[in-house]
């Protein structure tokens, strides 16, 4: 039995999905579990995860962090992706259309807080994406997740999606890679990080830019991943590269070694879920769903 088989068996047997064993069930790990279980044919368990997301969807369409904390609402986009995957597997009998519609209306209704351009910040502060917390500035990762959700729900050409794509490209560093969402701050060029770069490249798959920042980011990411990369960074980094069919040939070994190491950590299950998604390569639903435009 491989580490992937063991991980899938554990996910399917879980009564709920959280950031660590015994913790409150949470939206992000539940949505990731639904995506993973569905693509591996564990339909019943994937359905349980998708239905949990329905149960904790707010009236306005958003979802909070976990069963006890209904704000902030940044995980809403992940629920959309899980529901889109479930409907895509339903052979023409979608079950979550209404939930997807409510969630995407909420996504469209909120946005990051813009600001006047200033020499202190290198990025275009007037572009609007999505924040971690409503009423604050737009940042890289929540914007990328919302772009993925909107593309998966058939809204890849929506004006909000297109502006958010421009924001993501603008926030890539000049020589490649992404930080949390800034480029220059007070004259200092910030350093890129693996995880946000991978998430950004997932959202930017198939997009083009004039100054080559996307290609530079792929090159930087490919050079930065390796056998000692931690689980989440490795998973999102490999997914970001797989979105452009550029998976390193050592990826399977890196993932297997990371899975062994991750099992020694507290709260390992969500990290193993991410590694399992990354092991799918170009068949990962975070890559295929936005391409298929399964809803809308």
What does this protein structure show overall?
With 296 residues, this protein is an all-alpha fold. It contains 13 helices and 2 strands; from the N terminus they run αααααααββαααααα. The protein has a two-stranded antiparallel sheet. Helix 6 (140-152) runs parallel beside helix 8 (194-203), helix 10 (231-242) runs parallel beside helix 12 (269-278) and helix 11 packs antiparallel against helix 12. The longest helix is centred in the N-terminal third of the chain and has 13 residues, at 27-39. The protein is globular and about 55 Å long. The relative contact order is 0.12.
What does the secondary structure layout of this molecule look like, with pairings?
Elements (H helix, E strand, L loop, with lengths): L2 H11 L13 H13 L3 H13 L20 H13 L8 H13 L30 H13 L6 H13 L12 E2 L2 E2 L4 H10 L9 H12 L6 H12 L8 H12 L6 H10 L6 H8 L4
Antiparallel strand pairs: 1-2
């Amino acid at each position: 039995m491989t580490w992937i088989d063991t991980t899938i068996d554990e996910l399917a047997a879980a009564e709920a999905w959280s950031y660590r064993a015994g913790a409150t069930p949470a939206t992000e790990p539940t949505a990731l579990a639904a995506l993973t279980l569905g693509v591996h044919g564990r339909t019943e368990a994937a359905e349980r995860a998708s239905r949990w997301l329905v149960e904790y969807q707010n009236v306005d369409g958003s979802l909070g962090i976990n069963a006890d904390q209904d704000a902030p609402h940044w995980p809403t986009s992940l629920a959309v992706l899980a529901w889109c995957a479930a409907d895509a597997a339903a052979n023409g009998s979608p079950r979550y259309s209404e939930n997807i519609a409510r969630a995407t209306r909420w996504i469209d209704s909120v946005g990051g807080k813009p600001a006047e351009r200033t020499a202190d910040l290198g990025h275009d502060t007037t572009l609007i994406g999505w924040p971690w917390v409503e009423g604050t500035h737009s940042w890289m990762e929540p914007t990328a997740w919302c772009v993925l959700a909107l593309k998966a729900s058939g809204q890849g050409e929506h004006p909000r999606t297109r502006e958010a794509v421009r924001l993501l490209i603008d926030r890539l560093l000049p020589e490649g890679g992404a930080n949390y969402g800034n480029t220059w701050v007070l004259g200092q060029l910030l350093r890129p990080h693996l995880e946000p770069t991978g998430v950004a490249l997932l959202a930017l798959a198939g997009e083009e830019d004039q100054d080559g920042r996307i290609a530079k980011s792929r090159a930087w990411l490919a050079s930065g991943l390796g056998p000692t990369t931690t689980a989440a960074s490795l998973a999102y980094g490999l997914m970001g590269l797989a979105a452009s069919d550029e998976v390193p040939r050592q990826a399977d070994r890196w993932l297997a070694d990371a899975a062994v190491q991750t099992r020694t950590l507290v709260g390992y299950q969500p990290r193993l879920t991410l590694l399992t998604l990354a092991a799918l390569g170009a068949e990962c639903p975070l890559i295929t769903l936005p391409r298929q435009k399964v809803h809308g």
